[in-house]
Amino acid sequence: MRTLYYTFVTLHLFAAMTWIGGVLFLALVGAPALRKVEPPALRTALFEEVGMRFRYVGWAAVIVLLGSGTWLVWYRGWLSWSLWTNGTFWTQGVGYALAWKLAMVTFMLVLSLAHDLALSPSRARALDTRPDAARVRRQIVLMARVGALAAIGVVIAAARLVRG
User: Fold this and answer.
1) pTM, full prediction
2) Alpha-carbon distance 156 to 83, whole Å?
3) CA distances for 121 relative to 51, 89, 144, 145, angstroms
4) What is the Cα Rg of the chain in Å?
5) If 161 and its partner were Cys, which of 58, 81, 90, 97 is the partner (CB 3.0–4.6 Å)?
6) CA 52/CA 58 separation, integer angstroms
7) What is the pLDDT of residues 95-111, one digit of tens each?
8) Are 136 and 130 spatial neighbours (Cβ–Cβ below 8 Å)?
């Protein structure tokens, strides 16, 4: 059982590095660099290519995170109904950290889904012809930056969760 535990922890860490690392890279490095590419048609094509590649990798990582995370919560005995309905658990160190991590992950998932739906390849191409394109792009950039901040919150909550 111990080997299985370390296997799931390793999978969880690799998936978290892939998803959170990808979100941070795109928000802090990739997108700012791509915004300077000229001509605009090339910039749009590069954003689309990078975004689509990360979309598949990122969502695959999310699936691994959800599966391994659920197993790790079960392994630690935190998946029991009596614990989840015990108000005292959520006010203590581990329960508090778990609540924050679950809330931040849920927030990131909602933001990622909204971002992916708002920025599908066909919508991204159509955005260039809209009169409010600049405003919509700013909203999408803000969404990505808030997602990056939530990713940092997930890492902090995860560290608190395992280190107490």
Assistant:
1) 0.82
2) 23
3) 9, 44, 16, 20
4) 19
5) 97
6) 10
7) 999 999 999 999 989 98
8) yes
